[in-house]
Amino acid sequence: MPVKTKAKKPDPAVSFSDQFIDKIGLDEMCRRHARAAEIMRSPIFVQPPKSVEDSHRFGWMRGIALMTETLINGRWYEWLRVNALGRLPEDIDWPDVSMSMYPSGRHEVSKMLENCMKHVYQYGLRVDVLLDWIGYALGISWFDKPSMPESLWGHLYRSFNLDLFFMYPSDYFSDFLATHGYSGVADYFPTPLNITIMMNMIAEPQLYETLYEPCLGAAAQLLPSRSLNMIGTDLNPAMVKTASIQAFLYQPALLYAPHPIKGIHFDEKEMRMCRYFEFTTDTRIYCGDSLMGEFTAPRNIFEESSEHIDVYLSPVDLKKRELYKYEEEMMMPWDELPKEMKWKIVVAQSREFPMDVCLSNPPFNMSVGKFWRDNLQRIEDGNSMFLQEREQRLALWQEKYANRPAAVFQSIEEDVSHRIVVIETRAKNVIKGQLAFEFA
To answer: Which SUPFAM superfamilies match (predicted)?
Structure first.
């Protein structure tokens, strides 16, 4: 009588690989392998570790992540190609990593994360340690090397499976943070994925349109987007860190934008900057106050311990609007300006372009404290003094140059005045949430 044997459970990775090849075809798989080999020549590629001891270096998992993502989805390959060309090509093959499918393997990712957290908790540590470990492994400058026992590091090295995120793309970290201690912190209540998908379908941002999320959270609002010109800001450093991880996984253009792209930020026909671009940092994720428009960011997002610099995104404080520094030069004939000065003016002007789309679900229960209101009053008083001094300064220049570029500055001042009125009105009436986001 034959002996019955228990069927061997199939290896999920092998099973997925077989299904994947059947789905895309062997020729396409070969093409993707060639692309994965090509991405190894990228300056942001990091050689994979040879052992767990070798994994203690900054960015040890980045090379693995870039190759795996290229094999499965290909967004990093296309985005690096766009940057290498310096323009948006007509034949861009931008993969639709749909967040609406709720993939069948989604539970595998959640199970893997919970397994990692179980061991983190056994050492009396919090979710921040796991986030720091992932961000440091990917070599993202927001993260420092986390302090943890060697045994825990070894467990995470063996148990954390980045491939699953690329196999089954979705918004994993929003609910993960809420489950592990961040629900309600700074009024963080993640927007459900189906809602963010719906909002993107309504807004329909195009590849070239500027999409701004002032309350970024874990970047859930931007994950389903098709735009290649995104900016995300948040007041909470933990949210900024988490958003940078999810941007690495699914939205490379949000995490890494080293220079302007023709067809997105630069109009090749008119030979001018046409959309917002920040030249002092190569990332589009900033940490700071969206109402004030004042932020910080690493200068180089993939450099360990990169210097953090100030970034101003339509700040309420007029003294921090760089364009005012060159107002006198802008009154001169353009041809008479030296090349270096022209470039400085172009950079300053690019920071004043409005966003095409603002997409957000701000916290509804945050109130404005006394310190914040006092700071706003100081800025308002400082703006009045700044404008008075400006009028006196420009009066001398107008005797020689009549072409004062008043329109752009008038627009800035009207925008700032409107925002201050909205903020003050809502603060006095103790109306909480969505403070002054109507200006965007």
So the answer is: S-adenosyl-L-methionine-dependent methyltransferases
